[in-house]
Amino acid sequence: MTVAQKTSTKLDVPGHGAVEVPTGLFINNEWVPAKDNATFEVVNPATGKKLVDISHASDEDVDNAVKAARDAFENTWGTNVDAGERIALINKLADLLERDTKIVAALESLDSGKGVRMAATSDVPESIGCLRYYAGLADKVAGQTINHFGPDRFAYTLQQPIGVCGQIIPWNYPLMMLAWKIAPALAAGCTIVMKPSELTPLTALYICNLAKEAGFPPGVLNMVPGLGKTTGNAISHHMDIDKIAFTGSVPTGRAISVAAAESNLKKVTLELGGKSPALIFEGSDLQQAANWISLGIYFNSGQDCCASSRVYVQDSVHDEFVKLLAANAKAAAIGKPEDDATSFGPLISEGQRDKVLKYVDSAKQEGANITTGGKTWGNEGYFVEPTVITDIGQDMKCVREEIFGPVVVVGKFSDEKEAIKLANDTTYGLAGAVFSKDASQVQRVAQAIKAGTIWINNYGILSSRVPFGGFKQSGIGRELGTAGIDAYMQTKSVHQNLGEQLEWPL
Ligand code: NAP
Ligand code: MG
């Protein structure tokens, strides 16, 4: 006989002592172990040591979560309730998250390796802001009246929630990616079956207790941690999930699209990777450009889909810019996540660290110059130094592929035309940036770069109020802004007869 797994455990959280944290599956507002009692380990990336065992949702568990979500969608959520109820609950969840900022930030830091100060001042407040933004939008989405048919007929449209949504999120911003997904879905009236990354499930599970405390009806938010190839695969193939929203790598995005096509043609939105170019023209404030590029590539230790990972600088200012960027790389506040002084922590896993170091090796072999960094840092955990690579060629692996670590490649251009050509020489199209003091030039370049987000004389700024998503292979659809809630709604057109008589036969 197998002994049922516990669904919570004590975990030592820096600054908080032993904290009871959920480790089970959250289905229909209840904590349950996986049906087959399977678990997986979660590791602290700053030490490489195990933190806790988490339940691993099987196909059967996913199916139970979908049943709960379907029941809630048909009976207690969606079009069954006034939007005011959804608004109150989402705002209440935001309030509870604000109340628990310190413990959530500490858990996020422990699980993902990001500095606890960064988690408390960026990840948690941004997530709260996203919830509140979509709470505010929940009763602003409306259809159209189309009355251009004379007296006998008119038509209108309804914006209705899509239904049960599968949401699969990555490990780089575990809480923020959760907020970007659940806030618009809940506001639209959808119900959710979410899989957090196997590497970072702790804050997603914590949020479920807050959702229950806030008073969300059972089945509205379900959390099924597990591996991508098992739990994620069960979600993407499920016949009763109406839409899937995914953030992560291009190969996984492609696999999810195929699964959706092969099952019930569920709607798909994808937010995938990038190799985002930044163009720095002569006459720019080079120190400011170096600071923004450093934020773009070293924030979150470079594990960012819109990282400023590919920089091209006009010949005349290239060397000076590289000096400033390398100085910033050396000055990064690298250290233990639990120290308030740290803004640059370890990479998420041994695998990710090794992958990043392999790109540095391949750059050397292909003849690039490692100007600074390129090595591991400290004696434990998965740290990699902030790295600058110069003397690049367009065909090098480090220039073409997403590294997803603190590694920026820097090349040169001679004029605007060449700069734009280099910027667009990629299969990705998530973001791009231009630094210049010429007001017409920044507009020309912003229009020419083929990417979903462009920064002019800054980098990396995102807001819940502004849409975000990719051109080319960086994704399908948009998150955030009003586009974010539209992605969880579908338009129904209604034609009404006001007296028109039909003669038969025609
Ligand atoms: P990934 O494999 O795309 O994982 C993202 C999410 O998808 C995780 O929850 C993952 O689960 C799940 N998943 C994996 N295979 C799946 C499948 N066949 N069906 C359904 N879900 C599946 O990304 P990763 O392995 O964590 O990281 C690899 C690379 O992805 C990174 O090096 C980076 O280039 C890119 N990435 C991009 C972003 C972004 O923001 N765009 C974020 C993270 C990573 P498991 O964690 O359990 O495998
Ligand atoms: Mg993975």
From TrEMBL:
Positions annotated as active site in the UniProt record: 271
Keyword terms of this UniProt record: Oxidoreductase
Gene3D superfamilies listed in its UniProt record: Aldehyde Dehydrogenase, Chain A, domain 1, Aldehyde Dehydrogenase, Chain A, domain 2
Presence of keyword Oxidoreductase: yes
Superkingdom as given in the UniProt entry: Eukaryota
Record carries keyword Oxidoreductase: yes
Family label: Belongs to the aldehyde dehydrogenase family.
Designated name of the protein: Aldehyde dehydrogenase domain-containing protein
Taxonomic lineage from the root: Eukaryota, Fungi, Dikarya, Basidiomycota, Agaricomycotina
